[in-house]
Amino acid sequence: MGLTVPVSLSAKKEEDFKKEFSIRVRGEPGQAVTFVLSGRLALDTFKPFKNEIFALLDRFSPASLTVDLSGVTFLDSVGALALVELEEEGKARSIPVELANAGKDIQRILGIIDRAALTTPPLKTEEKLGVIERVGEGTITFVDDLVQVIAFVGDLVIALVYSLFHPRAVRWSEVGFYMKRAGVDALPILGLLSFLLGMVMAFMSSLQLKQFGATLYVSSLVAIAMVQELGPLLTAIMVAGRSGSAFAAEIGTMMVNEEVDAITVMGFDPIKFLAVPKVVASMLVVPLLSVYAMFFGILGGLLIGVFLLDITMYSYIVETQKAIALFDINSSLVKSAVFAAIVAGIGCQRGFKVRGGAEAVGAQTTSAVVAGIFLVIVVDSLFAVALHYIR
Amino acid sequence: MADRTPVIVVEDLTARFDDRIIFEHVSFEVYRGEILVILGGSGCGKSTLLKHMIGLYKPYTGRVLINGVDVNTRNEAELQRLRRDIGVTFQGGALFGSMTVAENIALPLKEYTDLAPADIDLIVKMKLGLVNLAGFENHLPEELSGGMIKRVGLARALALEPTVVFFDEPSAGLDPVTQVELDLLILNINAGMGTTMVVVTHELQSIFTIAHRVVMLDKEARSVIAMGDPRHLKEHATDPRVLAFFRRQPLSQWQKES
Fold first, then answer.
1. What is the interface size between A and B, counted as CB pairs within 8 Å?
2. Chain B residues near residue A85 by CB distance under 8 angstroms
3. What band does B255 get if pLDDT is binned at 50, 70 and 90?
4. Domain tally, chain B
5. Using a CB-CB distance cutoff of 8 angstroms, which residues of chain A are in contact with residue B160?
6. Partner-chain contact A116 B125, CB within 8 Å
7. Is the ipTM of this complex over 0.90?
8. What digits encode the pLDDT tens for the residues B162-195?
9. Using CA atoms, how far apart are residues A180 and A320, in angstroms rounded to an integer?
């Protein structure tokens, strides 16, 4: 003549229909108690079921517990896990727990739960690093990276010099392909950008020069800026974004797919095979792109000069010609080729650095663009100093 | 075992990419709790059929129903429920390389349930025990062997307690011992949880170990050429292509004899 407390609970989850279970309790608190379960014990009822049955366990704190499973209509492995947990909890409170009236299906599912696995500690624990350790690690990574870049530059220079003396060893069809990718395909966007840059420069400088009645000098200002600095720089940044990243992603994915390993064991040098065509193509095409960018920059300036500043087209062109020396163009072409080597080289180097999977490809691609632009600007300032003394 | 209630119904399915027909007018059913193996020689469209069954490819004609829901339904809510009702293990494992084993398995649980983190950890431990990988929570996929990766893939596929699990070439690239272990694991989970399983493979040993029924595709016929119990087919099939496959003999020999 036990006291019967009907407790029923339905999980309040969006759509669902059959997500219901109920627990009836037979017995007095502190004595032998039976929980009669019925309904569905599954992933979607795990949380309410666990809360409910542990609350009941607390309330009744029985001397012994029998869990009657005869009414359970559906049990999955998560539901079985809840029952196993109940048993473990009973063991911890030294309450004997018995699962009774389990049907065949239920016994089978309970059978595949590996109880030992639930308490197995992880074989590997992540260690937390302190500030000093992290600074040390960062320094080591930085120095490693520097050493790798220097070693790669060495390898690349050797490969390029070798190619210079053995031009037939270069895969020229690849070079052509990458010249189209990095060069021809970049023409529309690069033309537009430098055109707009030239316009902006002419317009902004005219605001100041107007005060001195010197708007005619807008033409030489735009010409000098575009030819000596902005043309090559804008082109290099553009190529870093478009092609440096693409090289890194391409070689990185080949690393992940073991294609680079295949190249190595087939007797090819990955640097000669993959990096040289990209670097050579960039060094050939980027100086041309620079000249193209200079032209469109000057054209943008011309448009502003002629239509807003009342300079005649003839005098704008004459002033532009006067402002540019052949030396400037030559040095800019050399500078562009160096930028191209940096951007393409860093792109390839970051690609070869990829280890692991998709995430590493992304990280190294980002790094290729950031490091490429950074190095281009550093080298540009070195050029500025050097050219100042050479001139 | 199987109680003849169809869980998956494939109706008049034709797969076609541009002008190339992979297979046409394929119809069969998968019953509750059974392990159905889709087999056939290389290039016959086994994997294509699997991708149609899980709704990754749109059929040219026909349709696939899982638990009565069209896998290409436009009804978002239905599609969501369907996706939670099936688990897929991919050929290469397709584990997320930047996440640990535990995070891989916990991902669907975190996204689709409102369980407490401690409960999710416990469920992850249970699933790892299910695939005999207790203790490997904090390993990254790159630190695991091929067989372990497949087993983690299976644990992830089982995370939401699906009623159907699909396997794409589970034993590809594994050594014989690991293959058998994986086969036994599949059988154990099928028997224990009653999960319906669809397996694409051409490993004969696996087929005889796990398959309740097989569906055999053929490249030239572009459709199903045999269906049924593999042990029965091996002895009693009349089609030379089927016999050649099950007895591991070159097809030319059977053509000469017949």
1. 95
2. 122
3. low
4. 1
5. 43
6. no
7. no
8. 889 999 888 887 888 888 888 888 888 888 888 8
9. 31
